[in-house]
Amino acid sequence: MPELPEVETTVRGLQKTILGLTIKEIWTDLNTKDKRQIGNIANPRFFLYFKKEVLNKKILSVERRAKNILINLNNNKTILVHMKMTGHLLFNNKDKFVHVLFYLSKNNFLAFSDARKFGKITLINTNTIHDSTHLKHLGPEPLDKNFNEDKFKKALEKKPKGKIKTVLMDQSIIAGIGNIYSDEILWRIGMHPERKISKIKPSEFKTMFKALREILSKGIDFGGDSMSDYINVFGEKGEFQLHHKAYRRTGEKCKKKNCKGIILRKIINGRSAHFCNIHQK
DNA sequence: GACAATGTTACAGT
DNA sequence: CACTGTAACATTGT
Questions:
Q1: Fewer CB within 10 Å, N- or C-terminus of chain A?
Q2: Could you confirm whether domain A149-276 is CATH 1.20.58.1000?
Q3: CA atoms within 13 A on the CB side of A80
């Protein structure tokens, strides 16, 4: 599951359910042939190591970094889960795409469901989390208390020639934003997704920073976006998809007050961008 | 059958 | 080096 609000919703669900439990057994039917997936339990050799390290360990805490879920154990190891496109974690709950099962103490279980099998589950050292190859390239957390307008502007300005939509989705510039939320942020502030960073005015950075925080927070408040297949650990859908202004509204009327525009779709750097033909400039 | 899909990464080319 | 396009990962849903 995809972007920051969906991952955050999942993490909050895990914090209510799995803390203090012990991992008793693990099952998977994944078996990748993708040579790039070295530290992934879909790799049979890694799975054996993973199992050895994780069995009989207790879950101390769960946190989020960008779109990654971090499950901290009592042996200085952290299970890192990245859901990619279609993954989700389910507590005491299964659906037809379950590929990994963590059997937990007190007859509980955590299932990893992933229709497209792109997801990644790996293990890193808790005390050197920042040096992990999976996390070290990531930019700042947009909802962090210490993140501000100035830091936001400086981060984006590392890509002066980049298109705003592409840069917002670049995890090394700012963490957690993907295709849905970038479309919604740009619709809100009336900026064309292909606007070059160098052509953004200071006042626009300010508005964008505010909109970005508000929209990501709104995504969390609505329990994530279930336009596609996201569900939380209890198997429940989120509701952000009911409030889209741009994402997947191709051909529909723009919802901005007094705007007569329609929503267009265009591939920008390999991803579908949805935007109003009139008010996004 | 064709096409698109919330993500990431490698690679080739400009 | 910076950036872009494409493919790949594997599968479902429209």
A1: C
A2: no
A3: 21
Protein-covered nucleotides on strand C (Cβ within 7 A): 2-7, 9-12
Query: What is the tally of helices (H) and strands (E) in chain A?
Result: 6, 10
- State residue A131's pLDDT score: 85
Which nucleotide's C1' is closest to A5 (Cα)? B6
Q: Does position A36 have pLDDT exceeding 90, yes or no?
A: no
pTM exceeds 0.70 for this model: yes
Average pLDDT of the segment spanning A126-148: 93
Q: Which of A5, A6, A8, A67 is catalytic?
A: A67
Residue with tokens 């930019």: A139
- Burial environment of residue A52 by CB neighbours within 10 A (0 to 12, 13 to 18, 19 or more): exposed
SS3 A129: helix
Helix (H), strand (E) at residue A78: strand A77-82
Structure tokens at A35: 């040579």
* Measured distance CA(A119)–CA(A123) in Å, rounded: 14
Domain spanning A4-131 has what CATH number?
3.20.190.10
Q: Scan for tokens 């859908």, then name that residue.
A: A237
Rounded Cα distance, A281 and A276, in Å: 9
Which residue ranges make up each domain of chain A?
A: 4-131, 149-276
Kindly tell me if the per-residue pLDDT of A15 is higher than 70: yes
Distance CA(A103)–CA(A143), nearest Å, equals: 33
Q: Would you tell me which residues have their CB within 7 A of strand B?
A: A 1-3, 6, 36, 66-67, 82, 84-86, 116, 118, 134, 137, 169, 171, 178-180, 225-230, 248, 265, 270-272
pLDDT at A24 over 80: yes
Residue A1 has pLDDT above 70, yes or no: no
